[in-house]
Amino acid sequence: MIITLTGFMGVGKSTIANLLAKHLYCKLVDLDKYIENEQGMPVSEIFRNMGESHFRHLEELSLKKIINENAEKVLVISLGGGTLISGVNQSIIKQQTKCIYLKASIQLLAERLAEHRGKRPVVDNIDNLNIQEEIAPLFEKRKTGYENAASLIIDTDGKSIKTILIEIINKI
Ligand code: S3P
Predict the structure, then answer these.
(1) Single pTM value for the model
(2) How far apart are CA 82 and CA 35, in angstroms?
(3) DSSP of 75-129, one letter per residue?
């Protein structure tokens, strides 16, 4: 069984994926880190040097590879916030994984993103004051992709990491 974690930047996919993999005693793959290791540079540099479309291409190739290589195993994958922009990725994730969508309000996402600057090329050039209004249309555009691919949606607003984790464990 492959479990994937999706949701917008800042929702806590990596944190939850890490704890879930520990709980299940299984392997964890963070898609961004996998790409960074393969390319030998951080995501921000891939964006800067080769552009977003090249990153999206790498994202698609890496996802296919990880899923094919682990089809018979138990694995947790933390996806990037933009992985499900791709229709190809959406159907792979929907058909071959149990996808959990970590949902959060735009206010909470904006607060989190404003706190953690410097590693997210999609939002790093946005001023903290405008972050909520700038990410709102992006979130709207991506929301359907998250919802379509997911078989489990977890509302994370106002919940501790522990509560979110327990909710996931009880529902998978
Ligand atoms: C992106 C999200 C990032 C990373 C890249 C692009 C996006 O992952 O894949 O910077 O387009 O939303 P996180 O959601 O883990 O920040």
Answers:
(1) 0.96
(2) 14
(3) EEEEPPTTGGGSHHHHHHHHHHSEEEEEE--HHHHHHHHHHS-SS-TTTTTS-GG
pLDDT, tens digit, 9 for 90 and up, residues 123-168 = 988 888 789 999 999 999 999 999 999 999 999 999 999 999 999 9
Side chain identity at residue 152, one-letter code: L
Q: Which residues line ligand 1 (CB under 6 A)?
A: 9, 13, 32, 43, 80-82, 120-122
Q: How far is the CA of 36 from the centre of ligand 1 (A)?
A: 12
Cβ pair 27, 92 in contact under 8 A: no
C-alpha closest to that of 79 among 66, 71, 70, 69: 66
Token pair belonging to 125? 């050039």
pLDDT band at 71 (very low <50, low <70, confident <90, very high): confident
The strand pairing partners of 6, in sequence order, are 101
Domains and CATH numbers, the chain: 2-171 (3.40.50.300)
Q: Which atom of ligand 1 is nearest to the CA of 30?
A: 15
CA distance 32 to 78: 8
